[in-house]
Amino acid sequence: MEKLIILTLALNILFFLIYERISKFINIYDYPSKRKIHSEPTPIMGGIIIYTNIFFFFIYISFLDNSLRSILMIENIKVGLSFFLTFTFIFLLGLYDDKFDSSPNVRLVLLSIFIFNFLYFNKSVLVEELNLSFLNEKILLNKISFLFTFCCILVFVISMNMFDGTNLQSVSFYFFLIIYLFSKSLEFNFFLFFLIISILFFAIKNFQGKAFLGDGGTYLMSFIFSLIIINNHNYLNIKSDEIATILIFPIVDTVRLYFARILENKNPFLPDKNHFHHIILDKFKGNFSIIIIIFSFVLPFILLKIFNNSLISISIFLLIYLLVIYKFNKHKVAK
User: Are strands 42-43 and 29-30 parallel, antiparallel or unpaired?
Assistant: First the structure.
């Protein structure tokens, strides 16, 4: 394990030192536009850096240290290969979109196929029951277990992709999830620690405005985190409504955007400037806007700690969220 930590640190330090050369070689940039916040072409390097880290981690646990396989729910070679191919295809799909700006409908179909195939060959990942804090008995999903799990992963991946919009926004949310999952783990989760290292090095460049996570990065990270969260739900018996509370912000913002676009007879998958972060950035400038955004997705967790009731916490959060949207939203939609 110590060797993997050293290799991980060395790899990320190398990325950090030769970042400019790698950016020019890969040549994938996010260019400014009317709906973009940045003013200069910015390398989309986050997904590549994190994918490389996860790739080396996967190779290490597959061939050098089998004891760490359980962290990723890898029971055998078949499961390991399925996991590797799925997160690779999902990453490449996002990377292709970063480069060529592919059709949202095509991406949705391909994402669905990748996730469907992964779940079909890995039944142990399925959410088979819901454990709600306000019910005495668990809700058995039975025949809809597959569909429910599929929808949960797909919605989370799409929501996080739409959630990614300004510097430190997505990486801060991933850090928040890591801290939350660490607090729930019964033992030290080395993979979460490993993710912190890789995300931290990218976060420095992201804060400086010199690198973006991109679709490849958000697709990859949200898929990985969805599996970790499901694993914690299934085996650590974390309440289902507690998880819903933690993840409520990006999902509710995505749902709002979809309905707003549909009501205006627009394609719900086409981008605009009606996201929560656009609204906040329009009202508050500089690092203060980032602080507000970070506080917004941490707020449900704070409310949960105060009231110890997910229904109350979600209700209060939704009320605050809708009031902020109503007060500040100018509904600027990109042409």
Answer: antiparallel
What CA–CA distance (Å, rounded) separates 109 from 321?
Answer: 31
Written as six digits, the tokens of 133 are 């804090």
- Record the pTM: 0.90
Model confidence over 92-112: pLDDT tens digits?
A: 999 999 988 888 889 999 999
How far is it, in rounded angstroms, from Cα 148 to Cα 126? Answer: 8
